[in-house]
Every structure is written in structure tokens, then in C-alpha cells.
């Protein structure tokens, strides 16, 4: 992972509504991962979609522990 390939993405925690700045590496392709909120420590599910053609970040969906993304 190279730092120049990271994309900053601002989103709100689905639990406590804290603004988070996530660093996403589009070179990993589309995937699902987890990140803990920096404020309330709750587990956030991230569904990351990356374009197969351009390799650019297309969307990020956040969900709580019980959500199905």
C-alpha cells in the first residue's frame, strides 16, 4: 500500500453520528471490511466499491453490526 493511493472519505458513524475520515486504498478492489469508530468504539461495517475499469473509488456504504451490506 502506497500513501499516494489512499483516498480520504468522510462519513458519519451509524451509532454515535461522529464524523469520521476514513483512509481507503482503492488498489484493494471492491471488498467488505470493518473499522471501529474512533469515538464510541463500535464496529462499523464498510462495503467498498471500486470500478473495475478505472480503479477509482465508486462508493462506500457504512452499516452497523447488525446490517447486511
User: What's the number of helices?
Assistant: 0
Mean pLDDT figure: 91
The general outline is globular
Order of helices and strands: EEEEE
Uncertain stretches: none
Strand content: over 45%
Could you tell me how far the N terminus lies from the C terminus, measured between alpha carbons in angstroms? 25 Å
Radius of gyration: 12 Å
The largest sheet is:
3 strands, antiparallel
Structural class: mainly beta
Fraction in helix: under 10%
Number of domains: 1
Widest beta sheet: strand line-up: 3-4-5
Number of strands: 5
InterPro entries: zinc_ribbon_bacterial
Protein name: CPXCG motif-containing cysteine-rich protein
Organism: Vreelandella janggokensis
Pfam families: Zn_ribbon_21
Task: Describe what you observe in this structure.
This is CPXCG motif-containing cysteine-rich protein. It comes from Vreelandella janggokensis. The protein is mainly β and about 70 residues long. It has one domain (about 5-65). Helices cover about 0% and strands about 50% of the residues. The strands form two sheets. It has a three-stranded antiparallel β-sheet with strand order 3-4-5, with no helix packed on it. Strands 1-2 form a two-stranded antiparallel sheet. The chain is globular, with a radius of gyration of 12 Å. The mean pLDDT is about 90.
Quick recap:
InterPro entries: zinc_ribbon_bacterial. This protein is mainly β.
Task: Provide keyphrases for this structure.
69 residues; 5 strands; globular; single chain; mainly beta
Amino acid at each position: 500500500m502506497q500513501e499516494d493511493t489512499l483516498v480520504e472519505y468522510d462519513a458519519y458513524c451509524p451509532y454515535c453520528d461522529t464524523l469520521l475520515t476514513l483512509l481507503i486504498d482503492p488498489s484493494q478492489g471492491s471488498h467488505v471490511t470493518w473499522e471501529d469508530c474512533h469515538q464510541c468504539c463500535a464496529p462499523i461495517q464498510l462495503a467498498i466499491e471500486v470500478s473495475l475499469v478505472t480503479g477509482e473509488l465508486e462508493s462506500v456504504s457504512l452499516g452497523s453490526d447488525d446490517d447486511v451490506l
